Amino acid sequence: MTSFATNITRVLRGTVAAQLLLLVAMPVITRLFSPANFGAVQALQSVLTFLLVCSALRLEVAILSETEEEIDALVATCFWICCATSGIVALSIAVWELVAGAGDTSLGGLVYLVPFSMLFAGLGLIVSYLVLRSHLFDVGAGAKIAQAASYSGAAILFGLISPAAIGLGFADLFGKAIYWFVCFRNLAIGKGLKLSSLDWSRAKAVIGRHRQLVCVSLPGALINVLGSSYTPMMLLLLFSASEAGHYALIERMIGGPVGMVSGAASQVFMADFSAMGRNNPGAQKTQFRSLVLNQLKLAVLPAVGFFFAAPAVIPWIFGSEWELAGRYAQIMTPLFVASFVVGPVNMALTIAGFQSIQFVWDAGRLIAIAAVWWFVFDTKMNSTSALSIYCAAAVVCFAVYLFVTDRALAKRAFMEESL
Questions:
Q1: Angle, nearest 10°, between helix axes 218-238 and 35-54?
Q2: Would you list the DSSP string of 256-307?
């Protein structure tokens, strides 16, 4: 556990530094761009998050467990699939523009950034798994700092020149490109990583060997992303870009740090958890329970303080026009706690080989979230009431995930002990 904590600290150094950069820059950025600008970019992120799952057909997950003999073929396959899927999206947008006008949507000109953001985010995801596999946590931390600095600098520059949603979109794209470049450069120097030409026979073998990821994990992940990206899109569609923008600010400034801290624990957890799966599957249950309990202990007290302080502190930091964001932050506090606890272990079922269980949970959560927003639409409630109901449903779904995962790992441990 000491090694686990040490590795988390290594990742967190970069995570905290990156978030501090954003915290310093964001009060400037929120005074240059309107809530509506943030809402439009949040809609772009929702679309991108969905597409990102398809970028390498989930084969990038196999990087953690692939053998040394086949890792080069897997990485090359992931890289070229990512390029191909981004190209397909670019071609689709070009056809859409010719037929109906792709820019004539709520995203406006941001839609043209989608394939480029998908490409660099997908490549960044591939190299991030390589970083985890090699336990190069300092490289990942440095890349996060570079991404935060690049985004902040570009956003402020675009805001000073011409404050519009497209400027925020370009800043986000630039940050993703920098993240990929920093990781790839360090992997190329330190591990001799190179992008080999595609060997079709080996690529087919790679896909066949990991077809469970493509056939089961990919649909489940798409359903999972739909469940998580449903809310910003529904806020935009049912209410306004401004209300979606208030939500986007809280997601970035509060959900971002929560995600970064839990993500740091997740990176170390996935590396260790996958190694246990190869060497000692029965120990996975103990590691899962220990991490969940530790995360819960860390979250409770800060969450109570944040709940009472958020309505006053948020508009004071980011400007008076962001008062609604403070109320949203208070409502979303229980969800942030749940995300902090579940985030580090959200790949446990997939890595442990329980893709079918993961798929059922993903589908169940999507149905629950869709039902919530249908109820909101039918009753025509306001955005704060809608967000309250959504957060309650999401917390219940996370609790079910923890219970189901614990039971699955406990059953595996019992079977291992019986052998």
A1: 160
A2: HHHHHHHHHHHHHHHHHHHHHHHH-GGGHHHHHHHHHHHHHHHHHHHHHHHH
Per-residue pLDDT averaged across 306-327, rounded?
93
- For residue 1, the model assigns a pLDDT of 47
Q: How confident is the model at residue 81 (pLDDT cuts 50, 70, 90)?
A: very high
d(CA 300, CA 303): 5
Contacts of 398 (CB under 8 A, 6+ apart): 338, 339, 341, 342
69 three-class SS: coil
**pTM assigned to the model:** 0.73
Show me where the domains of the chain are located. Answer: 1-209, 210-419
CB 102 within 8 A of CB 111: yes
For the chain, give percent helix, strand, coil, nearest 5: 90, 0, 10
Amino acid at 208: G
Mean pLDDT, range 211-225, rounded to an integer: 81
Average pLDDT score, the chain? 85
